[in-house]
Amino acid sequence: MSVKILAVDTATENCSVALLVGDKVYSRSEVAPRDHTKKVLPMVDEVLKEAGLTLTDLDALAFGRGPGSFTGVRIGIGIAQGLGFGADLPMIGISTLKAMAQANYRLHGKEQVIAAIDARMSEVYLGQYQRLESGDWIAVVSECVIPPQEVGQLLDASPLAWTTAGTGWGAYEDGLSSISLNLEAGDVLYPDAQDMVILAKYELEQGNTVEAEQASPVYLRDKVAWKKLPGRE
């Protein structure tokens, strides 16, 4: 029987929805940083209608769990939870950074990717990924939030060529320019739900799901409100 997974992501400037039915992916995507709440549900309706399915026909619902915009991550999870509750679906949180690694493979066949999203406050959300034979990805460097000038010290110094992804490379070009790895500039700037559904399939096969009420974000920067206050961590 064909696996059916719906994915929703609004964690960055890109708003996207995708539906995996067996090996076929139906998707919608638009860079619309201020209109996520207006666009995401119509996108859900469109992909379901295109596939001739309803929410209750699905096996799971995936969502972009972050890191990304605080507001964007909350919007995406809130909408995904509403859909999940309504159809009693198990939920799967997918890393936005890992999704950009998958996008580089989908578009260009790249299997070593370093993803960096502009985290504001002179920091980036970063993750370094290598594709496995199974098609899933291993985090060589787990996702974290870090000043750009410290990234070079953290990355795995492999002789492989690493493809860059995300807005962080353009936003902090000066701070990231000292990295001594063999880097290839990539053109993937944002995560997309059509890559999240592929990653979600691996998670579903391993039983890595949660109930809708347990769906939670990954912000990485938990103490953002105290960041610039003297005497605070």
> N-to-C SSE series?
EEEHEHEHEEEHEHHEH
How many beta strands in the DSSP annotation?
Answer: 10
CATH superfamily caption of the largest domain? ATPase, nucleotide binding domain
**Average pLDDT, all residues:** 93
Rounded to the nearest angstrom, the radius of gyration is 17 Å
GO biological process, one term: tRNA threonylcarbamoyladenosine modification
Pfam families: TsaD
GO molecular function: transferase activity
Main location: cytoplasm
Please provide a written account of the structure.
One of its GO terms (molecular function) is transferase activity. Belongs to the KAE1 / TsaD family. TsaB subfamily. InterPro entries: ATPase_NBD, Gcp-like_dom, T6A_TsaB. 31% of the residues lie in helices and 29% in strands. The protein contains seven helices and ten strands. Helix 1 packs parallel to helix 2 and helix 3 (96-108) packs across helix 7 (193-205).
Keywords:
2 domains, disordered C terminus, Nucleotidyltransferase, domain 5, 5-stranded mixed beta sheet, T6A_TsaB, 233 residues, tRNA threonylcarbamoyladenosine biosynthesis protein TsaB, tRNA processing, cytoplasm, transferase activity, alpha/beta
